[in-house]
C-alpha cells in the first residue's frame, strides 16, 4: 500500500513527505520531478512549448507509473485531482492524505516561488490562488481518505500523525 499526499502548492507535501519517509523508512517520489525528467524540460517550459493539457497528459502517465510501486510515498502535484482517472488510480494503490492549509499560509509559503506558470493567466497571484483553491477544494476533499491541516500542525506533527495512521493501516492489513 502506498502513502499518497495531495493538496495545493504550499500545503507542505514535500516537507511533510520527507519527514514521513524518514519516520517510516519508505522511498518517496515526487510526481512533478518525474514529469520534468520525462519531458527533459521544466514545468514552465512544458506549458510554454506545449500546453497545460500536455502537462496534464504527462502527469497522468506518471501517476500510472508510480501507482505500480508499493510502500512508497507519492507526493503529487497540486493539479492531480483535476483528472478523475488520476484519483481512481491513486486510491487503488494506497491511502490518500490531503494536506490542507488556509489561504494566508499558502500565500506566505509560495509567494517567493516562480517555478510555476500561471494557471489562469489573467489574475493577480492572490486572486489566482483563491480561484484555483475554490475550484479544487471539493476535488481534494472527495479524493482524501484523511485530511491533515498544516496550518494548525507543524510539519513534524503532521508527519508523525500521517506515519501513525499509515502504520496502523498497514499493521491491520498484515494481521
Tell me briefly what this model is:
The chain has 8 helices and 5 strands, in the order βαβαααβαβααβα. It is globular. It has 175 residues and is an alpha/beta fold.
Structure report:
The chain is an alpha/beta fold. The chain is 57% helix and 14% strand. The protein has a single domain, classed as P-loop containing nucleotide triphosphate hydrolases (Rossmann fold, 3-Layer(aba) Sandwich), CATH 3.40.50.300. It has a five-stranded parallel beta sheet with strand order 2-3-1-4-5, with helices on both faces. The radius of gyration is 16 Å and the shape is globular.
* Neighbour order of strands in the largest sheet: 2-3-1-4-5
> What fraction of the residues are assigned to beta strands by DSSP?
5-15%
Describe the global form.
Answer: globular
The largest sheet, given as strand count, sense and whether it forms a barrel, is:
5 strands, parallel
Number of helices: 8
Poorly predicted runs of 5 or more residues: none
How many beta-strand runs?
5
Topology:
Blueprint: E1 2-6, H1 13-24, E2 27-30, H2 31-39, H3 43-49, H4 52-66, E3 72-75, H5 84-93, E4 94-100, H6 103-110, H7 125-143, E5 146-149, H8 155-174
Helix pairs in contact: 1-8, 2-4, 3-4
Keywords:
175 residues; alpha/beta; Rossmann fold; five-stranded parallel β-sheet; 8 helices; 5 strands; 57% helix
Amino acid at each position: 500500500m502506498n502513502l499518497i499526499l495531495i493538496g495545493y502548492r504550499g500545503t507542505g507535501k514535500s516537507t511533510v513527505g520527507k519527514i514521513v519517509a524518514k519516520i517510516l523508512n519508505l522511498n518517496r517520489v515526487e510526481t512533478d520531478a518525474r514529469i520534468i525528467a520525462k519531458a527533459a524540460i521544466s514545468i514552465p517550459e512544458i506549458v510554454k512549448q506545449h500546453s497545460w493539457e500536455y502537462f496534464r497528459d504527462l502527469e497522468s502517465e506518471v501517476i500510472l507509473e508510480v501507482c505500480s510501486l508499493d510502500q512508497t510515498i507519492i507526493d503529487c502535484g497540486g493539479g492531480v485531482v483535476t483528472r478523475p482517472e488520476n484519483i481512481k488510480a491513486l486510491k487503488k494503490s494506497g491511502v490518500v492524505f490531503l494536506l490542507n492549509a488556509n489561504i494566508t499560509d499558502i500565500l506566505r509559503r509560495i509567494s517567493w516561488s516562480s517555478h510555476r506558470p500561471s494557471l489562469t493567466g489573467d489574475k493577480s497571484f492572490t486572486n489566482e490562488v483563491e480561484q484555483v483553491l475554490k475550484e479544487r477544494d471539493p476535488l481534494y476533499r472527495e479524493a482524501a481518505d484523511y485530511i491533515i491541516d498544516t496550518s494548525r500542525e507543524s510539519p513534524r506533527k503532521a508527519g508523525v500523525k500521517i506515519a501513525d495512521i499509515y502504520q496502523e493501516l498497514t499493521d491491520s492489513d498484515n494481521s
